[in-house]
Amino acid sequence: MNREKITKSIEKGLNFIIRSITPSGFWQTFQSSQGESDVWISAYIIREIGILLPDEQIISRLSNLLLCAQANDGGWGYKRSFVSDADSTATVCLSLHQLGKQFFPDKARAGALQFLLNHLDTWDTGFRTFRFDALRKILPLDKPAQAQGWIEPHVDVSTNVCEAIAKIGNVTLRNSCKNLFYSLLAKSTEVDSWEAYWWSTDSICTYHMIRLMQALLLSNNHDLLDSQIGKIAKEMPNDDFGKSQFSLGPCIFTTSIAIRCLVTQFERHFEQILKAINVIISLQYDDGSWDSQPILVIPTPCALRKRDVSDWKIDAPGYPNVLSDKSRVLVIAVAVRTLHEIYQALQCSSKKAYKGGSK
User: Fold this and answer.
1) Would you call 154 helix, strand, or coil by DSSP?
2) What is the pLDDT of residues 101-123, one digit of tens each?
3) Is 325 left (phi over 0), alpha (psi -120 to 50) or beta?
4) Stretch (H or E) spanning 126
5) Which of 13, 16, 88, 144 is deepest in the core (most CB within 10 A)?
């Protein structure tokens, strides 16, 4: 793999992302019936590539905007002036925490932590995305059963929230997060993998479990996720490019998430990873962007699982719906971060080979 190609691809992607900041100061994408996301998507992008952005003023402005968008309940939502949810709040927490303590004041941190803990179901089952009382502010609901899917714990949300709590909480909470990690791990087997609720690709659950494992300092135990990582490798087709349940063609997002899972076993999946990376780079447009497929899932509120829904719409009003990243900013951020991780893995691999050859 030509590392210069990776570097150039990263640079082009970052330039597109910087150019895509809207006049509001946020990034915006995923047009739903409630409008476009700005808060959640901006936090997600910072979490992905904040450390790679060359302009510190961009980081400073965005972190201030995110802090100003924190609601009185301590949480953040899909967009400004919208009901807070646990997943968006966890994503903001992770992005601000990654930037450094100076970007995440104690008062904001404490409020966010309490908000997340208020969404705990149990330390065996995980965290709810929404509380029923919050959903009633935006949906005509009479009883919890009407929104059961949105107020029940799901792996893709629970792992994201748990990672945030592990990073901003105390030792006692970190130990509770470990208990949840092992509880979620026990619910997955070689046959039955975790199912994402809000995403088109289920592999994001494995990726979130890897992130949680690293946050809990368990990263030397990747063999715990061996069956799930192996399953992702087997599901990559012969062209080494992932397609999601709703994609009409190659899905950059799905492939990037899959690669990040495989990179934890870099030597074992080396050839497969490099083939996929070459395809990703070859599909990048001259302006630095990539095509986006439908990836953000909005199930019917009462549906407990994606598989319970059959009448999906694509980029349409209402729900059940699957949204595309039409601004392409999330897809680019995820692809760029993936390329960066591969570049780092190649460097580490080269250093090991050099040390081995010098003995």
Assistant:
1) coil
2) 899 999 999 999 999 999 999 99
3) beta
4) strand 126-127
5) 13
Q: What is the pLDDT of residues 319-332, one digit of tens each?
A: 899 999 999 999 99
Model pLDDT, residue 236: 77
Distance (Å, whole) CA 228 – CA 216:
19
Residue 324, beta-bridge partner list: 294
For residue 49, what are the contacts with CB-CB under 8 A and spacing of at least 6?
A: 14, 17, 333, 336, 337, 340
What value does the CA radius of gyration of the chain take, rounded to a whole number of Å?
20
Question: b/e for 336-349, b at 16 or more Cβ within 10 A?
Answer: bbbbbbbbebbeee
- For residue 150, how many other CB atoms are within 10 A of its CB? 27
- Whether 353 has a pLDDT exceeding 70, the answer reads no
Question: Cβ of 111: how many Cβ atoms within 10 Å?
Answer: 18
Residues 259 and 249: their CA atoms lie apart, in Å, by 17
Interacting residues of 329 by C-beta distance below 8 A, sequence separation 6+: 16, 17, 20, 27, 29, 41, 45
How would you classify the pairing of strands 126-127 and 120-122? Answer: antiparallel
- Rounded to the nearest 5 percent, the helix, strand and coil shares of the chain are 55, 10, 35
H helical segments located in 69-104:
86-99
Instruction: Report the range of poorest mean pLDDT among 234-243, 299-308, 320-329, 336-345.
Output: 234-243
**40, amino acid identity:** W
Token pair belonging to 118: 């208020």
- 116-166, pLDDT tens digit by residue? 999 999 999 999 999 999 999 999 999 999 999 999 999 999 999 999 999
Q: Which two tokens stand for residue 276?
A: 């996929």
Percent of all residues in the chain with a pLDDT value above 70, rounded to a whole number: 92
CA distances 271 to 60, 134, 274, Å, are 39, 47, 5
- 43-55 pLDDT tens trace: 999 999 999 998 8
Residue 264 three-state SS:
helix
Q: Token digits for 315?
A: 């980029």
Q: Count Cβ neighbours within 10 Å for each residue of 12-29 and write b for 16 or more, e otherwise.
A: bbbebbeebbeeeebbbb
Helix (H, G, I), strand (E, B) or coil at 105: coil
Kindly tell me if the per-residue pLDDT of 207 is higher than 90.
Answer: yes
